[in-house]
Amino acid sequence: MHLLQSQRVRVCCMVWLLAACSPAADVVIDDAWIRAAPPGAHMLAAYGTITNQRGDEIVIQGVESAQFASVSVHESLEINGTATMRPAGDLRLAPGQSIDLRPGGLHFMLMGPTAEFDRTQQATIRLLFDDGSATEHRFSTSDPATPTR
Per DSSP, what are the bridge partners of residue 43? Predict the structure, then answer.
């Protein structure tokens, strides 16, 4: 009986260590939300604050979601008085650094919902890192008029 209990403790410790060593485990997204859109919308945008709580730099090379045909990092900007959007490329975060995804700036562009996406739903978005790891984050839907955003 003592041997079985000892093996269980070892297995639990190994699982905990593996989880603690996961590079993606120390990347958080606070205030993760998707701007609600009218029924039938083919593009939505996701926002929040990404923070690197690791001790080394992280590079987010991509984003994906099973709930959308494609997801990419975009930035909105104004050039010569004209609003435009373009792919933002990789996101690099130094240890302790945060990046805000916000309306009018960086955001996740969610294209082609695989099903009707309404104000009651959440989406799971995966961040893909340059070291091959990934982490999933839940985003709630919020009305654009919500004053807390």
Answer: 111
The span from the CA of 81 to the CA of 63, in Å, is: 30
CATH architecture of the domain with range 23-142? Sandwich (2.60)
Radius of gyration, alpha carbons of the chain: 19
Choose among 58, 62, 59, 65: nearest CA to 34: 65
4 pLDDT higher than 70: no
With beta carbons less than 8 A apart as the criterion, state whether 48 and 34 touch: no
pTM over 0.70: yes
Q: How far apart are CA 118 and CA 37, in angstroms?
A: 7
Domain boundaries of the chain, sorted by first residue: 23-142
Count of CB atoms within 10 A of residue 27's CB? 21
24 pLDDT exceeds 90?
no
End-to-end CA distance of the chain: 55
